[in-house]
Amino acid sequence: xxxxxxxxxxxxxxxxxxxxxxxxxxxxxxxxxxxxxxxxxxxxxxxxxxxxxxxxxxxxxxxxxxxxxxxxxxxxxxxxxxxxxxxxxxxxxxxxxxxxxxxxxxxxxxxxxxxxxxxxxxxxxxxxxxxxxxxxxxxxxxxxxxxxxxxxxxxxxxxxxxxxxxxxxxxxxxxxxxxxxxxxxxxxxxxxxxxxxxxxxxxxxxxxxxxxxxxxxxxxxxxxxxxxxxxxxxxxxxxxxxxxxxxxxxxxxxxxxxxxxxxxxxxxxxxxxxxxxxxxxxxxxxxxxxxxxxxxxxxxxxxxxxxxxxxxxxxxxxxxxxxxxxxxxxxxxxxxxxxxxxxxxxxxxxxxxxxxxxxxxxxxxxxxxxxxxxxxxxxxxxxxxxxxxxxxxxxxxxxxxxxxxxxx
Length: 408
Ligand code: ATP
Ligand code: MG
Prior knowledge:
With 408 residues, this protein is an alpha+beta fold. It folds into 2 domains: 21-308, BirA Bifunctional Protein, domain 2 (2-Layer Sandwich), CATH 3.30.930; 321-407, Rossmann fold, CATH 3.40.50. The chain is built from 11 helices and 23 strands. The protein has helices spanning 21-28, 44-63, 77-82, 85-88, 110-120, 166-186, 295-305, 331-343, 357-367, 377-381, 403-407; strands spanning 32-36, 39-42, 66-68, 74-76, 93-96, 102-105, 129-138, 153-163, 193-199, 206-213, 219-224, 230-232, 250-265, 275-277, 283-285, 287-294, 307-308, 311-312, 323-327, 348-351, 371-375, 385-389, 396-398. The strands form 6 sheets. A 5-stranded mixed beta barrel has the order 9-10-13-11-12. Strands 20-19-21-22-23 form a 5-stranded mixed β-sheet, sandwiched between helices. A 3-stranded antiparallel β-sheet has the order 4-6-5. The site of adenosine-5'-triphosphate has 16 residues, from β8, β13, β16 and α7. Adenosine-5'-triphosphate (ATP) binds at residues 108, 139, 141, 150-151, 154, 156, 257-260, 292-294, 296-297.
């Protein structure tokens, strides 16, 4: 992709009112644009990152048997009344049409998937199974001030699993937990992400949150010094004991909840009477699990964890491009390198703009692509191009032929 062709441009200064690091860098770099508080356009650069994140999640959820599909965002009021959440869920957006009919804008999808499954699942032989989607959610967030970390409209992966017995749900839940750790590891958050025990609501003792430690976090967690599991502050009792190892010493940290997994039991199958015949011909109410990850929140969290004072430092797995190719008055040579790298399936952003060297360097640091390849009079005289990693201070000159090998 040639940078001169991007309709979105970088900005020198952060927009007024954006206080969080993720929103400042993502806006200045041309990844997102704020339409209003908590609602963002994902620009071409940002969409490339989101698609990488989506693909990582897809691969790991497919690997635990998830089937991808897509549910609507506009829901009938009746489904939400059946579960009692039409009146109880205070962040639910309600809309009315001209005839006075009311709808919910989906903040989550139990009210759609449970009645859907009633149409398809009739026997224990159909179980267990799990289905997921990548879908836009709507929530009436009152404190939408953390950039894309807390949106009123945001992209979520939501997975739902259905089982005939609690022990099957338990087994699948453990699989999902492992898949989540893989996802966060692949997204570059392994060192900072902890499994935190949180309240399970009224239906089970605990739910589990995946909490990434950063100063921008809205949550407070206590990490057990012995086993490295964590507890969310909201459930922590006066004299806390680690629910995993019994440890009593904790480290307090600010963290962002990047994922949440829940044993819902029969909370949503009961209202929709989702029963099947078991092997002995007896009717059984199904139990259910749900597993969410906010993709836009994950993108923002990666920025909170991976940046310096100049801009973003994307982990290679989610970077919008692999290489940022910069030409300083050597467009012909750069064009040739550009084509060679593309031919080797390397994703290249080619800065072919007619702007100063200083501006190109500053933008490369802001956008944060893992490798910078510079073609200049000086580099050519030294025998090739200068290759530098975003996270390192100095680069080295390599011949044009060596670039692809070095980067691969
Ligand atoms: P929070 O406590 O931060 O409001 P939640 O408990 O309401 O989160 P869930 O309902 O479990 O979140 O949603 C699953 C996942 O969706 C969360 O772990 C998070 O990654 C993401 N998420 C939730 N709310 C938002 C939001 N307003 N903006 C962006 N992502 C969100
Ligand atoms: Mg919430």
